[in-house]
Structure formats: structure tokens, C-alpha cells
Design the sequence.
């Protein structure tokens, strides 16, 4: 496995030289790391396409991983884009726990992959898992955390609440 740090801010020709050398030395997996959460989904797509061309040109059977951080709040959409573009594996953590602003939230990633029909797994106990991780790591689940936060399915004001009250009459 060959990992490049800060891949998303490196020059494409530098990455090509690094990955070509790694593949020639026997690397079977490449990890593209957005070390400081710099990338956008469009940038992820462009970078992955470039690296996939490098791998194809080598003729080797090399898998590509995506490892992102959430400094700009884009870790989850970047993971979705990496998968859509052709990454073989993506890295994520429960509740996005990780360095600085964290990593992609594995729990939300799984929910989105299920909703998109990309996985067919029973996620009925995922909420229990998220709560246990929160307790074990002492990382609180924000009230507004998608899917698993206390307010995720609560409506209390505005047009939505009015529609619910009207429907109950």
C-alpha cells in the first residue's frame, strides 16, 4: 500500500511520478489522502480520473483508496464522489471522529449508500452503534446531526409544522 500525504494539493505531474514509481516497486494499493480537507467533489473527480489514468497506463492491477478530512465540511460528499468516480475503497469513521475537524462520517455514508441503492445492508442497529461510539469516545451527537441527532426528524416551526398540525385535524 502506498500513501501520499496532502495528495489533493500536489501537482498532477508530481503525483504521476510518485505513483508510477510506487507501482513499479510493487504497490498494489494507492491511498489518495485529502490530509487537510482541501478538496471539493469536482476536484475529487478530476484527481481520481487522473490517478486512474496513471494506474491504467501502468498495466498493473492496483486498487485506489480515498481518505478525506472534513476541514471544509466536504468529507462526506467527497467520499460519495470518490465512489462514483471509481475508487475501490473509501475511509470513514463513526461520527466522523478524527484529527482536527474529523473524517467522513461512516454512519452517514452508510445511510446515503443505502438510500442510493449502492449497498443492501441491514442498518437497523446503526443508531445503537452511533450512540455507543458517542459514549465510548465522549464525542456528543449534536442535536442537529443528520439521521441520528435528536432533532433529525423533529419539526416544530414554520410551514412543515403547520402542515403536520393540519393533517392531524
Sequence:
Amino acid at each position: 500500500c502506498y500513501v501520499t500525504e496532502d495528495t489533493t494539493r500536489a501537482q498532477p505531474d508530481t503525483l504521476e511520478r510518485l505513483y508510477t514509481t510506487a507501482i513499479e516497486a510493487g504497490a498494489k494499493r494507492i491511498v489518495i489522502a485529502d490530509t487537510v480537507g482541501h478538496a471539493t467533489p469536482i476536484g475529487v473527480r478530476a484527481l481520481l480520473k487522473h490517478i486512474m489514468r496513471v494506474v491504467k497506463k501502468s498495466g498493473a492491477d492496483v486498487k485506489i483508496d480515498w481518505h478525506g478530512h472534513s476541514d471544509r465540511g466536504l468529507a462526506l460528499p467527497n467520499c460519495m464522489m470518490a465512489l462514483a468516480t471509481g475508487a475501490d475503497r473509501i475511509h470513514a469513521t463513526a461520527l466522523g471522529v478524527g484529527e482536527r475537524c474529523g473524517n467522513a462520517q461512516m454512519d452517514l455514508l452508510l445511510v446515503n449508500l443505502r438510500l442510493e441503492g449502492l449497498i443492501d445492508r441491514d442498518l437497523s442497529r446503526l443508531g445503537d452503534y452511533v450512540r455507543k461510539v458517542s459514549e465510548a469516545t465522549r464525542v456528543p451527537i449534536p442535536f442537529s446531526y443528520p439521521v441520528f441527532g435528536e432533532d433529525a426528524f423533529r419539526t416544530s416551526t414554520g410551514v412543515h409544522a403547520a402542515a403536520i398540525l393540519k393533517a392531524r385535524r
Q: What stands out?
A: The first strand starts at residue 2 and ends at 4. The chain has a mean pLDDT of 90.
